[in-house]
From TrEMBL:
GO terms for cellular component: plasma membrane. This is NRAMP family divalent metal transporter. It is found in: Membrane. The lineage of its organism: Bacteria, Bacillati, Bacillota, Bacilli, Bacillales. InterPro entries: NRAMP_fam (IPR001046). It is a multi-pass membrane protein. It comes from Nosocomiicoccus massiliensis.
Amino acid sequence: MQGEKQKLTASQRRLLFGAVFLMATSSIGPAFLTQTTVFTEQFLASFGFAILISIIIDIGAQSNVWRVLSVSGKRGQDVANEVFPGLGSFIAILIVIGGFAFNIGNVAGAGLGFNAIFGWDVRIGAAITGIFAIIIFLIKNGRAVMDIVTQGLGILMILIVLYVAIESKPDIGEAAFRTIVPEDPLSMLLPIVTIVGGTVGGYITFAGAHRLIEAGVTGKENLHFVSKAANYGIITTGVMRTLLFLAVLGVLAQGAVLDPDNPPASVFQFALGDIGVKVFGVVLLAAALSSVIGAAYTSASFLRGFGKVFDKHNNLIIIAFILASTIVFVFIGRPVTLLILAGAFNGLILPVTLAAILLASRKKSIVGDYQHPTAWLIFGVIAVIVTAVAGVLSLEGLAQLWNG
């Protein structure tokens, strides 16, 4: 445990919390809100079981990834390439594809946010969001602004959903019981892989870790801070999802009928009245914008290993990434379906990326004399197996969702 008490500089501390909330707000975005609402409506109190299992998997995935990358001081794709030549490049391609799919959903969520606030067409709102996100990356200190904004947005979203959950008066006893004893646990495979994908799947697993590496928070001496950051990130998303689950459960028990075109907005409207829709719209828009930024930033970081041009023109790559995802959504539409499918796709990527990190944890050429705890290794292996099996079994459900 040597060096665990070492203090971070003010700059590192800001970036440390920036890493926590970059991960949290990337996952607590429009996909997160839509997935949780849709699945709670479908499974009612039993959805608590899926949340519990997903949190356990999230801890196993996140902690392993953040610890190994921080000790090595290298980004995910570089570590994977050292595990097996070419593996990192393959994973980078998967991450970029997954991040792109997720970003289409993020842009869609922003469009839904504008629709809730002003009643504008979803595609117009999405286009405005894309333009605004691009402007942020044209600003010289855009990354510092991103850190501050994501922290504020994370706290804001939790406080608002907490208030809605209190107002909706859910049956806490039933929710707790069904979280342990669900009515049909096998039916939870698609929800589990989807919400895991939305929380730590694809690029999201690496968002905070890559930010820590950029901050210089690496090596064994910083493991205490890295572990704390990883735990804070998972706790933040777990609390937020639980609160939203309870809020939806409460309004459904009171007879609310959710709008299939914008399910989360229906929850806020039923609980808070007409002002609830606008409050939700502001939160959704802010969450979507931060998620667009997080997806683009992290996905572009995976392209840096493909050559100096990607590293030198990183900001231009990020801007192109945002522009392309915005254009695709504007022509495809179907925002609610896209938000759910994006999380599920990222969940399918997780077993591959996590397996590579676990192999890296046993290679001294990558982690030096660091001894990765066996308990965390076992935890990670279980997460790989569960997500791989659930992902394969959920493919049929994904096809039905898209075709339906």
